[in-house]
Amino acid sequence: MKNPNDSFLRGRLRSFKFALRGMWLLMTTEDSIKAQLFIAVLATILGFYFNISNIEWMFQFIVIGLVLVAEALNTAIEKIADFVHPEYHKKIGFIKDIAAGAPSFAAFTSLIIAGFIYIPKIALLF
Ligand SMILES: Nc1ncnc2c1ncn2[C@@H]1O[C@H](COP(=O)(O)OP(=O)(O)OP(=O)(O)O)[C@@H](O)[C@H]1O
């Protein structure tokens, strides 16, 4: 909630504090985010193991960010849906299904990027 007595800088700092709290809540309470963070750590270890290039690191971090952002927004939509209509409703089901499509698009994209980065490197091992 905006405090009308806040200066511009104070208002921005307050928003930043809430945003950090949101990241902390997502990382500590949401299993889907925890799972994606675990995969991100594995991908980072893989990146060091295969000594991937700067460009490959950039793509890897972009898709990690994309998946986390999509997962966070999907979680927020699920929470709103559960809050406004906790009981079963066809439309809530539809809204949740299409919201879940967002992290799925991001996950497919990340799999394609992972394929481009790692398949040639893994193929060299055989
Ligand atoms: N209130 C509801 N009305 C109708 N269908 C629902 C409702 N709640 C959930 N669903 C259906 O169940 C699916 C899973 O919903 P849920 O909220 O459990 O999400 P989830 O993907 O299991 O999320 P998470 O594991 O992050 O909690 C939805 O995509 C939707 O199809």
Automatic annotation (TrEMBL):
Keywords: ATP-binding, Cell membrane, Kinase, Lipid biosynthesis, Lipid metabolism, Magnesium, Membrane, Metal-binding, Nucleotide-binding, Phospholipid biosynthesis, Phospholipid metabolism, Transferase, Transmembrane, Transmembrane helix. The chain crosses the membrane at residues 33-52, 98-119. It is a multi-pass membrane protein. One of its GO terms (cellular component) is plasma membrane. Its cofactor is Mg(2+). The active site is at E71. It is found in: Cell membrane. ATP binds at E30, E78, E87, Y88, H89, K96, D97. One of its GO terms (molecular function) is metal ion binding. Belongs to the bacterial diacylglycerol kinase family. This is Diacylglycerol kinase. It comes from Polaribacter atrinae.
